[in-house]
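User: Okay, second chain of the day. Same drill as before: sequence in, structure tokens out.
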Amino acid sequence: MEESIYGLKPYLETLTLGITKILETSPGVTEVNFSERPAAERHKIVSWEQKNSCSLPEDLKNFYLMTDGFQMTWSIKFDGNPMQLGSMVINSISKLGRLGESAIYTLPNAPTLADLDDEEGTESQRRKPSFDSRHIAFELDPCNGNGKVCLVYRNVKKGVVSLDTEIWFLDRALYWHFLTDTFTAYYRLLITHLGLPQWQYAFTTYGVSPQAKQWFNMYKPITFNPALLLDEADAFVNKLDPNKVFRTKSKTPVTKKKLPAQPTASPKIHGSMGATKSTSLPSNPARK
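Assistant: Same drill. Structure tokens below.
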């Protein structure tokens, strides 16, 4: 069910980390839509894991137990007409399909994705995923045809449940680019980039196109510096607690006892970005 953000359930602000407030106040934005989805049934998650011999990362599993996928779009007024600009997508568990599962790869003598493999490293000095049996990749986001964001399982062994995962971007030329170690970190990047066109290319050696760069400068200048993001991503995304965001639990009332008066502590900020449009990222965090 797709509806305006104004009629959504209270968990929207938590799920989007308050980014809707930034969009509401951004120049030219005319509409923000959110596709509300129920939680994935637990047996569907178990069925997916059994079918693929892969165990979902705990943060991604908790995400699906809160909402079966994610889709949020926003539009601007361009030349007098509405135009969708931002798109944030995470496929549902049923659409978390394995990369390369297509009829064209089963034809006799047809080339396979494995024919594209080489042994070169990536710009992040990590060994890139292969298209053979050593790795398995599942599509998290089709990126509007600009590539694919994938959940990649490394060190795959036949008969053994795969556990080792990373998030990678596969561009249209079928080159791999590392994004993050965890789904939580990737989710944070997706939200803070507002789903702008080609934002994933900011993590490649050749960067975003000139047209996409204009949209970056207009709507998200804070995160446009890829080098800054790569250096500070860990500290930045660690503000997101997946145990609080990617799970819905009812809280049991607790009887409070009176304590001696103490100085009032400053309120904690739980990751909301609603009023932090000009806030700088943390400085000089330790890289992992």
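The two ends are 40 Å apart (CA to CA).

User: Thanks, on to the next one.
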